[in-house]
Amino acid sequence: MKWILGAILAVFLFWFTSRALDPQTTHDKRTNLKVWGLVLGADDKGFAAQIKEFEHRNPDIRVTILSMGAGGMNPQKLMTAIVGKSPPDLIYQDRFTIGDWASRGTFLPFDNLIARDRHEKMCPRPEEYYPATWKEAEYRGKVYAIPAGADCRALFWNKKMFRDAAPRLQAMGLDPNRAPRTWSELKKYSLALTQRAPGGGLKTVGFLPNFGNSWLYLYSWEMNGEFMSPDSKTCTLDNPRTQVALQYMVDMYDAVGGVEQADSFASGFQGDQLDPFYTGKLAMTVDGNWKLLNIAQYAPNLEFGVAPPPVPDDRYYHRGIFADEKQTYVTWMGGFSWAIPVGSHHGDAAWRFIKWMTNPESALVEARAQGDYLASLGRIFVPNFRANRLSTEAVYAACKPDLPDLAEGMRACINLMPTARYRPVTFVGQTLWDEHQRAYEQAVHHKMSPKQALAAGQAHVQGELDRMASRQALPKINPALILTAAGVAISMVLGSLVWLARRVVRLGRLRKGEAVSGFLFISPWLLGFLIFTAGPILVSLFLSFCDYDVLHPAKWVGLGNYVELATTDKDHFGKAAWNVAYLAGIGVPLNLITGLAIALLLNTGVRGMRMYRTAFYIPSIAPTIAAAVLWAWVLTGDPDKGLLNAALRTIWPGHLPGWLNSETWSKPALIVMGLWGAGSGMILWLAGLQGVPRQLYEAAKIDGAGAWQAFRQITLPQISPYVFFNLVMGTIGALQEFDRIYVMRPTDQQGIGPVDSLLVPVYYLFDNAFKYFRMGFASAIAWTLFAVVLSLTLLQLRLAPRWVHYEGGRAKD
User: Fold this and answer.
1) Cβ within 8 Å of residue 130, ≥6 positions away
2) Do 776 and 793 meet the contact criterion of CB atoms below 8 Å apart?
3) Backbone angles phi, psi at 247, to 5 degrees
4) CB-based contacts of 305: which residues, under 8 Å, 6+ apart?
5) Least confidently predicted of 206-220, 268-282, 413-427, 429-443
6) Strand 61-66's sheet: what is its strand order?
7) How high is the pLDDT of residue 749?
8) Which of 262, 256, 254, 244 is nearest to 311 (CA)?
9) What angle do CA 312, 316, 320 make, to 5 degrees?
10) CA 727, CA 720: separation in Å to the nearest integer?
11) Which helix (H) or strand (E) holds 89?
12) Which region among 25-29, 72-76, 436-440 has the lowest average model confidence (pLDDT)?
């Protein structure tokens, strides 16, 4: 009774304390406006000033900022909040994703609010915004977000590197005092500015097509290529103009020794003060205007220039298909925006906040506050660009930096923004982005021709478009079916409990009491298992036959998900299956052999053996995430940064492996990392070795058996149960590989390695579930993987009697 009263008192105190500390329930009666996705660092004084000024002008509102994870908005948390009817009042969202979220019915349209408040000075008006920013926030004719920031891509070139290479440039007929303007010039400049180290590797590089922030999108738009039809119903990724653009990227990488060597070299690049553009390792890069802010902070004395991204020769000279072009240069624009999710509790306050944050007056408040703060630190201020062009021009006029290169760079970027392109607004935007990147990787690694790579990507995107178009015709799940399934499951559980109760009744009094006590003790775990484990397992099995995105009711597709997995999606899932088979087929035996070898060494009578055993075991208890971060540094391809390549440089002639940045070496690198944890298996091996009777070795020695014969005829048969256990568990662990790849993924390759070399089934499942929100399809992947694991385990159990020996003889079938 004392324990119960104590628990009640503790709960009451917790409730009372939380209520006392909640300003909404005590002194602060203002509306609490919850904003997600806006990441405010210690140096972000401008945003803080904007918010403070808003609260001053709106004393009835208090703004609460939540970043929802490092780097901004977390889509899983947003989706969960919307489904749980507790969304934030306002979100700061990448415009690229607006079409996807709007198609799910999760964002409120702003058209009525804009029409209502159009007479107000602060109301957002389409004509005041750069066209690309406003159009990217529209979906099917409605405005679902108000653009906030804006960025554009330009060519940054290092004037000092150009000047130092003047003899080579002039020998090729190039002007060292200006940036390249055409694709052919860019290639020539890049070759002239690329230098190799004595060992054959790269010392400096003129230009890398995909380093920075250009992507295939930019090169395709420069060729007037498009990725979606005007009605957004057809993917046009595979078109002749995009093929030409992709082929140009392939040729540029081949000119500097291939993409693998370039990526290996780039893997050693660092940020901040050690950015390769600042340190003279990279002469040119196509990047966003944020590069100006970084230069001002980390390399204010850098001699650099900003120019439009080079375009195809025919476009520059207005020949061929570009004869009637009025626009010579092309850039593309991205940025964030403000959106209000469905279910927002304070929509009016959120709209007031948006109107303030997106108008020129607010932009000047932010810029001046940030500029004053940086000036107090002795740093140069370069203002951000706004989607509202009036805000951008006002901030530029009031706060442009004094350094000529920075001011001219800002103006060069601003001049490109009115005609910038934007990524297609479609509910398959994320899929299109991933497939366009996958096509690039397949082509530059020469796995496919540009046409084949683009065709494969287009087929995948079009399949998703067709699937969504046909979703309307799918039958909704009948609630009676769900109730029937739940009833069957409950009946099975109740039947099991009744059967157990009858068994208990037949027991004697003493045993009956023990049985009842036992069931009572395990009931918390049993209930938890039924509710939180068995329940979700059964639900996932049911969802594997449905089309379900969490935000809408599930629709029945029968075996459709499994058919798609085996047909239209066979390339992706097949690649994942091959990768995990490679990791299991080579990694598991190698790990077993390594663990056994260590155990054999540690099973000797050497002095200080306890210390050795501890030393070998300690690495295995390191957290997986920490070990993965450590190995990501060790396996960096650049010898100046990667520990392994730094050691290999003295004995390995020629080009060093790129490891995680290499299609060839990424999986072996993961296997090598797996040996780091061999100490955990070593404990089991050591227990098995110490259980082998000594007299068997003595008898073998008397019979003249050597060390190898004793190991093969005595040790292996005696420890075969341990071999079997480690083999089964190692195979299951390899098939479930995920966490190391998730942590070690190269950030510019969508987390799956070059040419999908690190794509594994669980990572593929994760992407479909939490990136594309295809929960039904992800459930089908999960159950397919379960079937594979179960089949392999049963096969191993079936074969075990042929070679596993126990004390009483071989394992029974």
Assistant:
1) 147, 150, 333, 387, 389, 417, 418, 420
2) no
3) -65, -35
4) 156, 157, 159, 178, 179, 405, 408, 409
5) 268-282
6) 61-66, 31-36, 90-94, 336-339, 146-147
7) 46
8) 244
9) 75
10) 10
11) none
12) 25-29
Check if the beta carbon of residue 440 is closer than 8 Å to that of residue 419: no
650: which 2 tokens? Answer: 């003295």
Rg of the chain (C-alpha set): 32
DSSP-derived 3-state class of residue 242: helix
Asked whether 302 and 295 are in contact (CB, 8 A), the reply is yes
Residues β-bridged to residue 154: 287
Look up residue 548 and give its amino acid.
Y
Per-residue H/E/C for 375-415: HHCCCCCCCCCECEHHHHHHHHHHHCCCCHHHHHHHHHHHH
Q: Which residue has the higher pLDDT, 746 or 465?
A: 465
Q: What is the pTM of this model?
A: 0.86
Q: Coil, strand or helix: which one is 207?
A: coil
The model's pLDDT over 737-771, given as tens digits with 9 standing for 90+, comes to 998 888 876 544 444 678 888 899 999 999 899 88
Kindly report, residue by residue over 111-156, the tens digit of the pLDDT: 999 999 999 999 999 999 999 999 999 999 999 999 999 999 999 9
Nearest Cα residue to 258 out of 755, 808, 673, 704? 755
**What does the alpha-carbon distance between residue 110 and residue 116 come to, in Å, rounded to a whole number?**
10
Quick one: 413 exposed, middle or buried, by C-beta within 10 A (0-12, 13-18, 19+)? buried
With H, G, I as helix, E, B as strand and everything else as coil, classify residue 212: strand
Question: Rounded to whole angstroms, how far apart are CA atoms 302 and 475?
Answer: 63
Instruction: Specify the 3-state DSSP secondary structure of 345.
Output: coil
Residue 462 pLDDT greater than 80, yes or no: yes
Beta bridge partners of 195: 204
Q: How many residues does the chain have?
A: 813
